[in-house]
Amino acid sequence: MRADLRLSLTAAVAAVALAASTAPALAEETPAGSPLVGIGRAVTDDTQRGVFEVTAWTDAPQAKVTAVSAKIRQGDTVVAAVPTLVPGDSWDPRLASTFRLPAEATLKLVEDGGTIPSLGTYAIDVTATDSLGNTLTRADAGRLDFRLRPELLSFGVGVPAWDDRNARPQGNLSAVQPGSGDIVPLPDRTVTVRREGAAADEAPRALATSAAGDFTGEPYAVAGPGDTFTASFAEDSAEVHGSVSASRSVAETYKPLRASATAAADRKRALSGETVTIGGRLTDPAAAGAPLADQPVRVAFGPQVANVRTDADGRFTAKLPAFAGSGQYEWEVTSGDPFLVFDRLSGPLAVPLESRLDLRSASLSADGTLTVSVNLRALYMPDASMSQQDVQLEQSVDGGWKRVPLRETALSWEDITLRAGSRGGWFRVRHLTSDELAGATSPSFRLVRFDTRVVSLNAGPEPVSKGGYVTVTGSLQHFWNGTWQGYGNAPVVLQFQARGTTTWKQMASGRSSASGAVSLKAKASADGTWRIRHYAADSRHFHSPASAGGDYVDVR
Predict the structure, then answer these.
(1) Global pTM?
(2) Dihedral angle at the C-alpha atoms of 344, 345, 347, 352, nearest 10 degrees?
(3) pLDDT, position 526
(4) Which terminus of the chain is more exposed, N or C, with fewer CB under 10 A?
């Protein structure tokens, strides 16, 4: 479009409007011609308003539409004649009956080498003929929308930054001219700008366009990169028809300050109810590491969140209580200001679940083996899964608890069995605190057996003839009421170990007398050592020690 046309555009449109107002109104006429031929509505292509299309068909047997033409008129004046509309692709049934103005015949303004006198709307008359000569003309088959199509050539919100947190809506409103496709500015128009999700008291802003179509608004204070602005324009006049809008997010252009951050927690594990202290520092690497004072920082630990600010040296501290939940948490430090960014900082911090240690069984065998079975589980989450947990057996010694070395530990889900050598006493089982479970202690329990021994052991005669009898005597005692006393009517066995071997063989058995005296005899067949043991003990006594000694007898 020429510059002089742009200047006279408004006057031309006014003249067209005046002519239209003085012309008689044209009612849609009944199509003239064969009833076998049909013509649909002529529709303007909105992308290129110098082009239109129309559907035409024939109901005559074995006939097809062979020619479609059109006239563009204003009132009774024909401003353009289109001798041929081009049919669509025959292979596509949806396009086979559609006829379109060919690209080379695009309608244009007179100033652009066409025949259309001015912008506006024009009547379209269409004539269709089939291969049998049937013809139909439909006046006012449609309206050619030969008006400018508005476009927002640009729309932006500026570059909100850490030190200037304002969005500045700006852009250009222009229009596409029908036919030529020229871009022309739309001056003296109003573009509406609104913030998406704005507060009820924040009204949209009306921005006027300049002679070049440019518009600029007053700054908006923005909360962060999530703020989004939409510019919109609509007009339905003799000159312009259509609507257009564009949205821009602050996130597309904003410029945050990238800080350097450090953070650490004062512990790796905290019991429920304890306070965890998480602290760190923010600095500006672009300013030689200068501290960033009075900046918001978000510190999270499990479900707990603290919003704190840095001090004059850029340091921050948050104190958060620990509450047992899943047993495993992570502390996290993030920026509390969307215009201040730094890499997320985090670290593990376990909050063990409260636990319970139940005593299932405890026994002390005659050979000095202590066996304890306990059940370990989370107190309020009995079905919580966990890794292997550490437990220890403890014995009361001199008013305190001392760890007992274990011979064996057996695990079966939450059930734990511990075995150790012991002569009895007060015991308990303790679970050591882990990242999953807090510490727990079983009820204390007492296991008692009485020690036994054989004293005054003697074997004879010495030497003894091979095949002769050896008589072994001694006294069986048990530690009763703090002293060693005779252990009467108790089962005893006579054992023999041949010289050069390590195996003890049972040779005879019997019982001690009422005073604990023992006398047993057996045949001698080789040199070796003889001993008496209290072995088949009851539930209240230990076996006599295996190292109870013996008496060597020479066989000749």
Answers:
(1) 0.64
(2) -70
(3) 94
(4) C
Among residues 209, 237, 219, which one has the least CA distance to residue 153?
209
- In the block, residue with structure tokens 């510059």: 3
- Type of residue at 244: V
What's the confidence (pLDDT) of residue 551? 92
Cα distance between residue 376 and residue 114, in whole Å = 94
514-517 long-range contacts (CB < 8 A, ≥24 apart) are 514/486, 514/488, 514/489, 515/475, 515/486, 515/488, 516/475, 516/476, 516/477, 516/485, 516/486, 516/487, 516/488, 516/490, 517/473, 517/474, 517/475, 517/476, 517/486
pLDDT at position 379, please?
84
> For residue 491, is the peptide bond before it cis, meaning its omega torsion is within 30 degrees of 0?
no
Q: What is the mean pLDDT of the chain?
A: 90
Say what the pLDDT of residue 410 is: 86
Instruction: Say if CB 461 and CB 375 are below 8 A apart.
Output: no
Can you name the residues that pair with 491 across neighbouring β-strands?
511
Distances (CA, A) of 116 to 43, 106, 113, 458: 17, 11, 9, 142
Structure tokens belonging to residue 86: 């081009």
* pLDDT at residue 300 in the model: 95
pLDDT of residue 20: 38
Contact (Cβ atoms closer than 8 angstroms) between residue 528 and residue 552: yes
Place of tokens 């050591």: 432
Q: Which of 200, 210, 197 lies closest to 170 in space, CA to CA?
A: 210
DSSP 333-376: EEESSTTEE---EEEEEE-PBPEEEEEEEEEE-TTSEEEEEEEE
Question: In the prediction, which pLDDT does 331 show?
Answer: 95
- The secondary structure of residue 250, as a DSSP letter, is G
Q: How many Cα atoms within 13 Å fall on the side-chain side of residue 466? A: 4
> Looking at this protein, which amino acid is placed at residue 17?
A
Task: Tell me how crowded residue 306 is: count the other CB atoms within 10 A of its CB.
Answer: 15
* pLDDT tens digits along 530-544: 999 987 657 889 988
Predicted local distance difference test score (pLDDT) of residue 389: 85
Q: Encode pLDDT of 113-132 as tens digits.
A: 999 999 999 999 999 999 99
CA angle 219, 220, 222 (to 5 degrees): 135
Distance CA 309, CA 318 (A): 9
91 to each of 37, 85, 94, 96, 283, how far by Cα in Å? 21, 18, 9, 7, 69
User: Which residues have a Cβ under 8 Å from the Cβ of 29 and sit 6 or more positions away?
Assistant: 138, 139, 140
310-318 long-range Cβ contacts below 8 angstroms, 24+ apart: 310/281, 310/282, 313/281, 314/281, 314/282, 314/283, 315/279, 315/280, 315/281, 315/291, 316/279, 316/280, 316/281, 316/282, 317/277, 317/278, 317/279, 318/277, 318/278, 318/279
Task: Identify the pLDDT of residue 537.
Answer: 59
Ranges in the chain, pLDDT < 70: 1-30, 90-94, 325-328, 413, 536-537, 546-548
Q: Using omega within 30 degrees of 0 as the cis cutoff, is the peptide bond preceding 461 cis?
A: yes
Residue pointed to by tokens 């239109």 = 52
